[in-house]
Amino acid sequence: MPAADTACRKQGAAQSSRLFEEDERFPISCSTFTAHMISSLFVRPPISAFLMVWMIGVFGGCVSTRSLPPADLCVLPLTTAMQTRLGIADQVAWSKYQISAPILDPEREQQVIARAVSAAGRAGLDPAMAERFFSAQIVASRTRQEELTRLWSRGGTLPSFGPVDLKREIRPVLDQLTTDLIAGLKIFPNSASARRALAAQLSAAGYSRPVVTAAMGF
Fold first, then answer.
1. Number of alpha carbons in the 13 Å side-chain half-sphere of residue 173
2. How high is the pLDDT of residue 57?
3. Which pTM value belongs to this model?
4. Superfamily for the 3-215 domain
């Protein structure tokens, strides 16, 4: 086995263990995973309680790391972070819809990309690759928001919860997710098979082809 592949598997396994802390006797449960995500991201009680149900819904299809082929352990951390970010896009879309705010926010997007590229560079990633990746995630988020907005505007079922404050609650979470995305990207093999696995996992999570295509545009 090539040394790079061995290192990737070891890093993927270590990062998956950090995320899931799986008991050797049992497969990880979605509720356990959700609790870890909430404790690491939503540290303030008001937003933690509000988003508990939402997080369970987003990760309702999570599976045990033991059911994955070893190579997929290099894909799983990035998949997890990307799905988390896309799930938060639903909250962003609903908050904007409630106040008739535009989905496109070029200034904010450029700020996010610039900070992410800077952080990625400090972590040892190629800045050009990081810029492509984070630009793709922003496009995917925007695509998801546009889909939901069209659905709601045409009489689709509206969310039952109220809007969340974008500046004080959602944006700090998205900023924190940058760290997880960078960590996942560092061990992602970026091979054809890894990209297929990543796209398949995003599709299996219920995201549309346009959203998945956008997210994979790096």
1. 28
2. 44
3. 0.71
4. Chorismate mutase (1.20.59.10)
